[in-house]
Design brief:
Distance between the termini: 16 Å
Enzyme class: hydrolase
Mean pLDDT: 97
CATH class: Alpha Beta
Number of domains: 1
Low-confidence stretches: none
Keywords: Hydrolase, Pyrimidine biosynthesis, Zinc
EC number: 3.5.2.3
Shape: globular
Domain Dihydroorotase catalytic: 49-233
GO molecular function: dihydroorotase activity
Strand content: 15-25%
Largest sheet: 8 strands, mixed
Length: 429
């Protein structure tokens, strides 16, 4: 069916601009964009002057299949993504067992294909079992459909093993996604070290652990010439090293989670475990520096780092509780905080949330131009609401740090391949 989206505030991250206009969706792609009339027989959707942007490409989503389906299934994750304006999920391999063989990858690809209604692509582990000892069959996994390779927060501590992985990945053009942390310093840490950690009596880790881990990986990237993406840069001290790596011509990119640019260490408050993340939340100075780096483009990608945990793993003393938070449905409204406080424009945000992750992974998306996939999100950046995690979230797990928080920014409709896969109840056509 041809769909005509009229009276839209079009957010174009590639051009870095906003403009009023209409779109024609046909054959799963954007057929026309501009100031034109509706084609005969098209379904007309009045956007009401609200924002229309490329669908979010979320790099680094945890889904519990296989092994932890009770925390999040492909079906529940896909429904949550559609409700949050996320049209493409890039899932992580930190499952049980890890996605470290073509057979396991083919299993999750079949499960994802059955889930609908959004696009789902998959990373594979970098080492077998994510144990940091033996490299996976990178070539076979790429042939099976893996878009990147990562051991996630199980840092490959053995430098020789990591160098071999990067060398082999370089020969195949594979993207390696690292978690820049020194594993020795980070072991057992629950928060960022400092006065706040001392007052709360919690084990902390210095921000230098991130800098040291990143420096190690950059030395190996310089040695091997591999394609590398740092999944989360959260500290101001790491930013000069990232800038130098890019200036030296390394094929390096970096990301940050939405929680690390909208929350800080004080949000942990009185041991609130929904705010326990990996890496831990940082001081406000770090949060501001990282947000500014995201706005400038030094940090390329903003992601949800969606990590579902059940109530039993969160309702524990802070030090013992599992790390991570769900974020597929709170990603866009949380990102609107950066828009409303003037840190970033909407085109800058969607450059980081849609265009850049699609380009880094070689995917055909994140663009607002004729011929681009009709993966779109219609949203109101100013609509206020108070989040109730039990009644408003589609995710099986409800471990969001934004429960009870007043937020701004509502997804009104989501389109994938020209098909509407989500519509807010209050939206009128």
């Amino acid at each position: 069916m041809t769909i005509f989206l009229e009276n839209a505030r079009i957010i174009d991250p590639a051009a870095g601009e906003e403009r009023q206009g209409n779109l024609v969706l046909d054959g799963g792609r954007i057929a026309a964009i501009g100031d034109m009339a509706a084609p005969k027989g098209a379904r007309v959707v009045d956007c009401g002057g609200k924002c229309l942007a490329p669908g979010i490409v979320d790099l680094g989503v945890k889904v519990g299949e296989p092994g932890e389906r009770h925390k999040e299934s492909f079906r529940s994750a896909a429904l949550a993504a559609a409700a949050g304006g996320v049209t493409t999920l890039i899932t992580r391999p930190d499952t049980a067992p890890a996605i470290d063989s073509p057979e396991t990858l083919e299993f999750v690809m079949r499960r994802a294909a059955e889930a609908g209604p959004v696009r789902i692509r998959h990373m594979a582990a970098l080492t077998k079992g994510r144990e940091g000892r033996e490299m996976v069959e990178i070539g076979f996994l790429m042939d099976a459909g893996a878009v990147a390779f990562s051991d996630c927060d199980n840092v490959v501590a053995n430098t020789k093993v990591m160098s071999r992985c990067l060398t082999y990945a370089r020969s195949l053009g594979a993207l390696v996604i690292g978690h820049p942390q020194d594993p020795g310093l980070s072991a057992g840490a629950a928060v960022t070290s400092g006065k706040f950690a001392s007052l709360r009596g919690l084990p902390g880790v210095s921000p230098m652990a991130e800098r040291m881990g990143f420096d190690r990986d950059m030395a190996l990237v310089e040695m091997t010439g591999a394609r590398y993406h740092a999944d989360q840069i959260t500290c101001a001290r790491t930013l000069p090293a990232l800038e130098r790596a890019k200036a030296n011509g390394f094929d390096v990119s970096a990301g940050v989670s939405i929680h690390h640019v909208t929350l800080n260490e004080f949000d942990v408050g009185d041991y609130r475990t929904f705010f326990k993340l990996s890496p831990p939340l940082r001081p406000e100075d770090d949060r501001k520096a990282v947000a500014e780096a995201l706005a400038s483009g030094l940090i390329d990608i903003l992601c949800s780092m969606h990590t579902p945990q059940d109530e039993e793993s969160k309702r524990l003393p802070f030090e013992e509780a599992a790390a991570g938070a769900v974020a597929l449905e709170t990603f866009l409204p949380a990102a609107m905080r950066l828009y409303h406080d003037g840190t970033m424009t909407l085109p800058q945000l969607f450059r980081a949330m849609s265009l850049n992750p699609a380009k880094r992974l070689g995917l055909d998306g994140g663009r607002m131009e004729e011929g681009a996939p009709a993966d779109l999100v219609l949203f109101d950046p100013d609509a206020p609401f108070v989040l109730d995690r039990f009644t408003m979230l589609h995710s099986k797990s409800k471990n969001t740090p934004f429960d009870g928080t007043r937020m701004e920014g509502k997804v009104l409709a989501t389109f994938v391949g020209g098909e509407q896969v989500f519509a807010a109840d209050a939206r009128k056509e």
